[in-house]
Amino acid sequence: MLSLRPVFGASRAVLADRRCGRPGDMYFVNWPAWCQAHYCAEVRARDPIRGWLDREAADKGVARLSELLPAALRGAPREPLLAGSGAGFVLTLALREQDRIVGALSLVRDAGHGDFDERDRGLALALLPLLEMAYHGVIARGAATVPLCAGNDPLRALTPRERDVAALAAAGHSNKSIARLLATSPWTIKNQMRAVLQKAGVQNRTELSALWNARSGEPR
């Protein structure tokens, strides 16, 4: 998928497996873990691309996210997933098997690079048969990335104590405050926080908080 970057200027992608006739596993390329978790927990159920795939994709084959949004939201990305991650615009290709849509490839262009245009749409339509062949090959071999939406939660790698530290950090506590609450030293908490960020695949407490809150309603 990343080999399409020189053609479309896309730096990220999402591959959705819909072989059962409904949204299934999703494979994220170049997305931070907190963005993946936020999408699965907060955005996926109301994603306009999913509705398009269910209703109109069989006739059109390719669509831009900006076309699927209500008129009031066009012109600038209002979805927190896009705005918070630096992504700006999405071009989605419906992947078929015979007469049935079995997958979708969404190419994501960074904010500030401009929306996908008619040239991009034409190229996507021309490449669609090749992308469908590639998709079937990837699925047949088993996707290289574990689908986060199928239950791969990066927070499950945390130890019980690291989970306590993560919960308090996500709630806004400083290292000193966490150390006091857990009856340990700030130095110990600093080391545990470093381990938490590394295991969760996030860069800072803000991303950790977004990831933690996105998963807070799910069983661990």
From TrEMBL:
Keywords, sorted A to Z: DNA-binding, Transcription, Transcription regulation
Biological-process GO terms, alphabetical: regulation of DNA-templated transcription
PROSITE patterns in the cross-refs? HTH_LUXR_2
GO-annotated molecular function: DNA binding
Q: Which InterPro entries match?
A: Sig_transdc_resp-reg_C-effctor (IPR016032), Tscrpt_reg_LuxR_C (IPR000792), WH-like_DNA-bd_sf (IPR036388)
- Pfam families from the entry? GerE
Q: Which Gene3D superfamilies match?
A: Winged helix-like DNA-binding domain superfamily/Winged helix DNA-binding domain
Q: Which residues form the HTH luxR-type domain?
A: 151-216
Q: What is this protein called?
A: Transcriptional regulator, LuxR family
| Species whose genome carries this gene | Rhodopseudomonas palustris (strain DX-1)
Q: Source organism lineage? A: Bacteria, Pseudomonadati, Pseudomonadota, Alphaproteobacteria, Hyphomicrobiales
